[in-house]
Amino acid sequence: MEKTRIRKALLNAGKIMISIVLLYFVFTKIPFSAVAALWKNVNVAYLAAAAILFLLSQIVSAKRLELYFTAANFNLSFKSNLELYFLGMFYNFFIPGGIGGDAYKIYLLNKKFGWSSRKLTSSLFNDRLSGLIAICIIICMLSLISLPEFKFHVLGLSILGLVAGYFLTAKMFRDFKKIYLKGLGFSLIVQALQIFCFIFLLKSIGVENGFVHYSLLFLASSILSLISFAGIGVREMLFFQAAKYFDFNPAYSVSASLLFTVITAFFSLLGLFFQIRTLNLKTTDPL
């Protein structure tokens, strides 16, 4: 157990260090004053719309997790699940060196209801897997627009990913076989909301075109974010490097990326309220 904690602490420390190094490199190339200037003239209406879309994406994410919990016979009420979801966001964003958000959910539900930690872990894993498959599918669909000459390859990869995900679920997680497509539908909605959130952030600082490429990079950064703390640094570095190959100003893309981080941090703070207040988790099971 002690070795596991040390290994996790080192992993988290490594992610934080990666974020710091990548941000340092980006801001040696793009003065922060350029980012601040864009923020100074931000369109508040677009910024507010982006924040609302992000919040909606998290509510749909919580609903998706509720779907997987229910399939495993964990009938947590939606209100309790939503509170638990934001609490997990808080732990993931603000306590990187401690227990992770998903691990904390498992701990609380196991302690409160005696639910199987293994089955809870499976539910959370499939919830995350659904999101990853959705990201890959949307990347393929957007690639059809930007790379039409490879449309058959892209369509083939999309179908392959969809089918492979289904058979993996059917083989290893039979409880979730029947809800595979429904869970994927929720995930596609989540990612669509986050893409439009990022587009509105771009529009808030004056960007009016190139949204397909921005969206592709934004989704790619969601996958690569696993190697850094909350994706910070990776998104900015990816946008900075991509500016060499696509026709956009890196200062704008980095500014929008940092705004996305600020919005994520803001809504993650909602979890602090549920941390301070004693959670009253309830199920929908009949008394």
Entry summary:
It is found in: Cell membrane. It contains twelve helices and no strands. With 287 residues, it is mainly α.
Sheet-strand content, in percent, reads under 5%
Helix content: over 70%
Count of separate structural domains: 1
Uncertain runs are: none
- Averaging pLDDT over every residue, what do you get? 85
Q: In angstroms, what is the radius of gyration?
A: 20 Å
What does this structure look like?
The chain has 287 residues and is mainly alpha-helical. The protein has one domain (2-276). It has twelve helices and no strands. It is globular. The relative contact order is 0.17. It is found in: Cell membrane. It holds the Pfam family LPG_synthase_TM.
Keyword list:
287 residues, mainly alpha, globular
SSE order and pairing:
Layout: H1 2-29, H2 32-40, H3 44-71, H4 78-94, H5 101-113, H6 117-146, H7 151-172, H8 180-204, H9 211-224, H10 234-242, H11 250-268, H12 270-276
Transmembrane segments: 21-39, 45-63, 84-109, 129-147, 154-173, 179-202, 214-234, 254-274
Main location: membrane
Pfam families: LPG_synthase_TM
